[in-house]
Amino acid sequence: MESILDENVPYINTSMLKPSQPKSNIPKVKSGFKRFNDWLLRFVPTPVKRPINNEFEAFKKNVMSLYPKQLKFEESKRSSLKGFAEEHSIKPPTDQKFDPKTFLMTVKQKAMEKLKPQTKIRLVLRVRMVQITKHVNAIKNFQSKRMVILASTDLNELWTEMTERMLENIAVFQMNGSGWTFHSIVSLDIHTARYKPLCEINKISSK
Length: 207
Known about the structure:
Layout: H1 26-41, H2 54-66, E1 74-80, E2 85-91, H3 100-106, H4 108-112, E3 119-131, E4 136-143, E5 147-149, H5 155-175, E6 181-194, H6 198-206
Antiparallel strand pairs: 1-2, 2-6, 3-4, 3-5, 3-6
């Protein structure tokens, strides 16, 4: 009995099929996404602009003009006894007018930079006073107490005590019937000297 495997393979005159490349849908997807994005952007509201308040801006400029950004004070320093004693002077700008209290508040930071531990200090506020009836003017000195700065000293309390003493002296001077009235600030002079407690001096002398 003949097997089917023994039969001759018939000849088929037909070309073999080749698989075709699949078509890409990426361009269609991109195009659809772009249309959706354009449609969505049409519903995004435009940014809201804040209205400018002209009256507020004018008020702000007026306030800023009353408080200059930077005041240029004239500072100088003198020393004696090989640096044992020093005198720092702070003068107001020539184009600015201060009353005594405002001036002391304004220069506080600059003045406190000169305050060091283990020093004696005295403040002198030099003020130009006038007698209007006599058409004369003169520079008067108003001093604080001489104080000692130690490592434990509260500099803010020290400054307050010294400046209040000078302001009180000015007020008393004008109210005592002297005829003098305040005109302008000349300078604030800060006199310092190195301070050595008595016990340290005794230790040095006993060596």
